[in-house]
Amino acid sequence: MVSASALAPSSALADLLREDEPRDRDDRLRVDFGFSPSAGAALVSSSAVSVAAVVARQLDAYNRQAIDEFVACFAEDVEIVREGSPDAQRGRGTMRKNYAAMFAKFPQNKATVTKRMVVGQHAVDEELVEGRDGPPFRTIAVYTITDGLISHVRFLSVEYA
C-alpha cells in the first residue's frame, strides 16, 4: 500500500507545479532549458540539460557575434547543412570564415529561440532571425551534440515572419 506522503510531490516538483509558472494555451507547463534551468531540471536527465546548455551557449555567442566563443561550441569536423542547398559547410575553419563574414555584413543579426525541444543528444530549435537584409524569418535548427560539442546542424525551411 502507498502512503499519502509518497504521493505528495517532491519539493522540486511542487516548485515546478506552482500556479504562477508560465503555461501554454493548453495549460501545459512551459519549461525553459536556457542558461539556468528551473527547479524542475531535477526531473530532466543531465544529458538533456548539457545538450541544451551547449546549444544555448552557442546561440548567446552568435547573438553577441563573439566568433571565437561561437566556433568553440562546435566540433572540429562539424557539418552544417541547409535544406535545399546541395553544399554542406564542413569544418570549424570554414565555419569561422563564413560566420565572421556574415557578422561583419550584418552587425544587427540576432536569433531568438521561440521553442526548444531536447531529445537524447539532439536539440531542435525554432528560431526567429532578424537583422539581415529583408524581413525577419523563422527556421528550424536541428543540433546533434557529440562529446559536449555540436557536431552536426541541419537548418530546415525558412519561413518569412
Pick out its properties:
6-stranded mixed beta sheet; alpha+beta; globular; Nuclear Transport Factor 2, Chain: A; 161 residues
The mean pLDDT is 79
Quickly give the structural class: alpha+beta
Order of helices and strands: HHHHEEHEEEE
Enter the CATH topology name. Answer: Nuclear Transport Factor 2, Chain: A
Going across the biggest sheet, name each strand in turn. 2-1-6-5-4-3
Structure write-up:
The protein has 161 residues and is of the alpha+beta class. The chain has one domain: Nuclear Transport Factor 2, Chain: A (Roll). It is built from five helices and six strands. It has helices spanning 4-7, 11-16, 46-64, 67-71, 92-105; strands at residues 74-82, 89-90, 110-119, 122-130, 137-146, 149-160. It has a six-stranded mixed beta sheet, with helices on one face. Strand 3 and strand 4 (122-130) form a beta hairpin. The model is unreliable at 1-44 (pLDDT under 50).
Explain the layout of strands and helices:
Elements (H helix, E strand, L loop, with lengths): L3 H4 L3 H6 L29 H19 L2 H5 L2 E9 L6 E2 L1 H14 L4 E10 L2 E9 L6 E10 L2 E12 L1
Summarize the structure.
This protein has 161 residues and is α+β, with helices and mostly antiparallel strands. The protein has five helices and six strands, in the order H-H-H-H-E-E-H-E-E-E-E. It has one domain (45-160): Nuclear Transport Factor 2, Chain: A (Roll).
